[in-house]
Structures are given as C-alpha cells and as structure tokens.
Amino acid sequence: MVMTKIDSKHVQLENELRKMGKVVVAFSGGIDSTVVLDTAIKTLGKDNVLAVIANSILFSDDEFEKAIHLANQLGATIRTIEIDYLSEEHVAHNTPDSWYYAKKLFYNQLTQIKDQLGYRFVIDGMIMDDLNDYRPGLRARDEAGAKSPLEMAKFYKSDVRHLAQQSHLENWSKVPSCSVASRFPYGTTLTEALINRVMLSEKYLRNLGFSTVRVRNHGDVARIEVPQSDIEALINQREQINHQLKQYGYGFVAMDLGGFVSGHMNEQLSHEQLAKF
Fold first, then answer.
1. Which residues are catalytic?
2. Residue 147 carries which DSSP code?
3. Can you list the positions of beta strands (E) in the chain?
4. Are 53 and 64 in contact (CB under 8 A)?
5. Is 226 exposed, middle or buried (0-12, 13-18, 19+ CB in 10 A)?
6. Cα–Cα distance for residue pair 94/106, rounded to 1 Å
7. What structural domains does the chain harbor?
C-alpha cells in the first residue's frame, strides 16, 4: 500500500506524541486542536491525555459548550478552566502585543495543571500556517515550553482538514474562530458591554446563514465582513441587518466591500511592531 503525504505526516504526528508520553491538550474545539486531541487519545491512550477547555469573555459560550461536547464525543478526560483575560492590562487595552499576554495567562494555567497532575507536556494545535502571520502567542508558547505537534509534523491547514475528514471528525469543515479582541482596533479599551455587542451581532448574522462573518467595531460603527461570495446575500438582507444591529447599540452599520480578511486589524501595525514577534 502506497503511503500518501498525509499518511506520512500522520505517522510523524503519532511519533512526536509518543515521545511526549503524557500530555495536556489545549483544546478549543477547532479543527487543529481536535486532530491533536483525537490522535493523542488514539496514540497514547485516554489515561495519558487531558483536554483542558478554557472559558472566557473573549470567546463565545457557544464555542465553549461545543468544545466540551466534542471532547466528550472523542472520549477525552476533560478539565475546564476560567480565564479572566481583562484583568491583564495589555489585554484590556487591546495593545498590539495583547495576545502575547493573553496566551501567557493561558499557558501558565495549563502548565500549573500539568505540573500538579504529573503530565509531561502541554500541547496545542498550532500549525505551519501560523508561522506566516503576526502571532505574538508563539512567543508565549515557547517561553512556557509548550509544544505544537502538528507544526512539528509539518502540517498545514489543508493537511489538517484532510486528516480530520479522513478520520471522520464531525468538525472537519468548521469555520475558524478567534478571540473577539480581533474585532477591535488596537488601543481600544475592551469592556464587557462592547464585547457582548459584537458577540450578539455575529451570532445574529450566523443565524441568518453567514457562517464566516466578522463584525469589526469602530466606535459607533459596525463594519461587517463576509466572504466575497456572500456580499450579495448580505446586501439583500441589509434592511433587517441594519435594524437589528442598531438595536444592539450601533449608530451606523457598514459593509466592507473588500470582503472577509483574517487578521484584518493587523494591517494597521507598523513593520517594527510586526517584527517584534
């Protein structure tokens, strides 16, 4: 039987996990961490794997509940934690390096759990693509000594989706989610009210059928990003969308003609700021 490129990378992933022996998995319910958790359980056994799922104001309760449901389906041992990200001033003021400090809080909690319970490594779902973007969290990961087995096995996003589908994981086609802080310009002071307004707006739009959507918050203005293929559908429903988002507190509702762009707010950063991490 001829081994495919994905098969070869999967074998490498299993080998990297075997070297680690007993691991705490930072589990978000996204495709990447799901492949890591599923492979770790199958490779190391349930007793050697702990899925830690974090709840916080920066991610929706829906994502948290879905992650718990999925981890249970995979047969994982689960531990949930709460992280008060807004207690960290860099996160609360959404500085360009805020995600470094947020991830530092995150990895510190997971490291404490690892040490208390006798696991050997904290692992996450970082992939090769993450090396090509502005990712302050990579520095926090490295400082904490956490490992990224998918990255170590040279997995890209397309590889992860292929393996997830091949492994019959229910979320293989899941739309990526990220911290709600990414909806605000750097330097914005984040509050629970502002965050909830964005969360409500995006949930409303997802319920209308826009699975990939971002509501970027610019003071009194909501700037909606959807993929180019969904712009016409958004325009067709503009009246009800405009009305509903104003009910959530926005004074003006706009559509970004450029369409959805991941990490859009990073465009305002200087080369010096980007090079810092």
1. 178
2. B
3. 23-26, 49-55, 77-82, 121-123, 214-218, 221-225, 252-255
4. yes
5. buried
6. 16
7. 5-167 (3.40.50.620), 180-267 (3.30.70.2210)
Task: Give how far Cα 208 sits from Cα of 60, 136, 230, 240, 244, Å.
Answer: 18, 33, 11, 10, 12
Tokens representing residue 185 in the block: 């310009």
The Cβ of residue 266 has, within 10 Å, a number of other Cβ atoms equal to: 16
Residue 227, token pair as written in the block: 């993929």
* Residue-wise pLDDT tens digits, 107-116: 999 999 999 9
What confidence tier does 277 reach under pLDDT thresholds 50, 70, 90?
Answer: very low
Tens of pLDDT, residues 14-41? 999 999 999 999 999 999 999 999 999 9
Smallest CA-to-CA distance from 210 within 165, 252, 159, 256 is with 256
Structure tokens at 163: 């393996």
CA distance 11 to 21: 15
Pick from 173, 136, 133, 174: nearest CA to 264: 133
Place of tokens 């702990």: 50
Distances (CA, A) of 174 to 164, 166, 204, 261, 266: 10, 15, 18, 17, 23
End-to-end Cα distance, the chain: 43
Q: Predicted confidence band at 155 (pLDDT cuts at 50, 70, 90)?
A: very high
Higher model confidence: residue 263 or residue 81?
Answer: 81
What is the SS3 assignment for 52?
strand
What are φ and ψ of residue 77, in 5° steps? -80, 130
Residues 6+ apart with CB under 8 A from 100: 90, 136, 137, 139, 140, 277
Question: Which has the minimum average pLDDT: 113-117, 132-136, 183-187?
Answer: 132-136
